[in-house]
Amino acid sequence: MSTFNLPxxxxxxxxxxxxxxxxxxxxxxxxxxxxxxxxxxxxxHFLNANLIGKKYYDVMxxxxxxxxxxxxxxxxxxxxxxxxxxGLELIINQKFxxxxxxxxxxxxxxxxxxxxxxxxxxxxxxxxxDLQKTFLKMNDINENQIKIFDYDKDNLPEKKFDVxxxxxxxxxxxxxxxxxxxxxxxxxxxxxxxxxxxxxxYFKKIFKKVEVIRSDTNTVHKxxxxxxxQFLD
Length: 233
Ligand SMILES: C[S@@+](CC[C@H](N)C(=O)[O-])C[C@H]1O[C@@H](n2cnc3c(N)ncnc32)[C@H](O)[C@@H]1O
Known about the structure:
Rossmann fold; seven-stranded mixed beta sheet; 7 helices; about 35% helix; globular; binds S-adenosylmethionine
């Protein structure tokens, strides 16, 4: 498989989660008409789902290459925080079969997509959990491998995870502190927590081990991708 299968409605969510996947014409329409019309009208009617499926696959493959060496053959239980529709987890599952994937996401699309740093105010979302499930099942993952949790409504899963991944979400759009207590509860000694942040140094006060694995200096956020383990207290 070198592309993702997806319904058009999922393509719409994907371009909201990953704006770089929209073509330059659509990005110009967004600048011209504004974010409200872009997210509520343009993405509903002017997307080529096959093209988005292919581009999303390629981007997720590239993301996977940044984290691959931190996944071990005996890892089984993965947690994704703000993973969008879950393309990255599908790629992980292609390479390391039969794992279990827990997703914490939100079940609405913000009226006006902002893509900014919200700190402790965390009210932005671009997902639909039924569509996420449909998308995952259309792309060769078994229903019994996945569990999806609504951040706003559900009790979050209390498991000890092997790997926790949050690209362009935790500490990129909203403060790590929102999840701090929870992450302490669901981590063990060797749990690797991978996320994007603009304050990598700060996490040396939170974790015993912090490794920078990628620097994005060209983006608005100028973020770093870090792998952390072992909470200090
Ligand atoms: C910029 S998108 C990134 C999606 C995906 N990680 C990727 O790299 O393509 C941010 C995602 O975080 C989700 N999100 C926002 N607040 C959240 C929260 N408190 N918990 C979990 N997910 C959240 C949004 O719904 C959205 O899908």
